[in-house]
Specification:
The structure is a single chain. By secondary structure, this protein is mostly helical. It is built from four helices and no strands. It is globular, with a radius of gyration of 14 Å.
């Protein structure tokens, strides 16, 4: 199910860019890395997807001038990165189960 949701969020982000829908872009780009983390996507490609999604979203929301959504997007992407560090096991204080 997580693979289907990851594909859905990738398509949602692409459709958001195509149809110029800010909420579709926000939801697609923020939830795609979360779903990839849930399916145990490999570490390095996950970070590439996370960085690319963050960069695309930050540039897009900055250029359209919607700074409230930009701040929310940055917060959610930092939360995604924190989840990656915490649950994939890069945080030295956390044991892998």
């Amino acid at each position: 199910m997580h693979k289907v949701l990851a594909l859905f969020f990738a398509l949602l982000a692409a459709a958001g860019f195509y149809f110029n829908n800010e909420i579709g872009i926000f939801v697609g780009l923020t939830l795609l890395p979360w779903q990839l983390g849930r399916i145990n996507f490999p570490s390095r490609p996950y970070l590439v997807v996370l960085a690319a999604a963050a960069l695309l979203g930050i540039i897009y929301f900055f250029l359209i001038g919607w700074y409230t959504l930009l701040l929310a997007f940055i917060f959610v992407m930092l939360y995604n990165y924190w989840g990656y560090r915490r649950f994939i096991g890069l945080d030295p204080g956390v044991r892998k189960k």
